[in-house]
């Protein structure tokens, strides 16, 4: 693709679709995303915040999480977050320790 503006528009549309998908599938837990894809909703919020900082846009982490979650994080947690299973936690810790040794 040669048009940078079109590229940005497509990237924005894809992000919007991804966020909508995650917001309409709250049953998919962050730990599952971390274990399968090595990122979660909180990672997206951190990336969004970092992009804002690069552009000198004033934003805080709570605002970034609300953008990603589609509601305040505290509300999402109360409504949707489930307790991680011992298996999920073990896999998460295993992957985390493997990263440290790379």
Task: Give the low-confidence spans.
Answer: none
CATH class category label:
Mainly Alpha
Structural class by secondary-structure content? mainly alpha
Give the mean pLDDT.
95
* Range of helix content: over 70%
Order of secondary-structure elements: HHHHHH
The CATH topology assignment is SMc04008-like fold
Number of strands: 0
* Computed Rg: 16 Å
CATH architecture classification name: Orthogonal Bundle
Main sheet record: none
Supply the CATH superfamily name: SMc04008-like
Ends distance: 35 Å
Number of domains: 1
Could you characterize the architecture of this molecule?
The protein has 102 residues and is mostly helical. It has a single domain, classed as SMc04008-like fold (Orthogonal Bundle), CATH 1.10.3340.10. The chain is built from 6 helices and no strands. It is globular. The relative contact order is 0.11.
């Amino acid at each position: 693709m040669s048009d940078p503006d079109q590229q940005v528009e497509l990237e924005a549309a894809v992000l919007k679709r991804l966020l909508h998908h995650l917001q309409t599938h709250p049953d998919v837990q962050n730990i599952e995303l971390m274990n399968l894809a090595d990122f979660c909703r909180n990672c997206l919020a951190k990336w969004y915040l970092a992009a804002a900082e690069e552009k000198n846009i004033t934003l805080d982490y709570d605002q970034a999480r609300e953008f990603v979650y589609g509601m305040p994080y505290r509300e999402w947690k109360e409504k949707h977050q489930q307790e991680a299973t011992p298996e999920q936690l073990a896999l998460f810790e295993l992957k985390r320790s493997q990263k440290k040794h790379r």
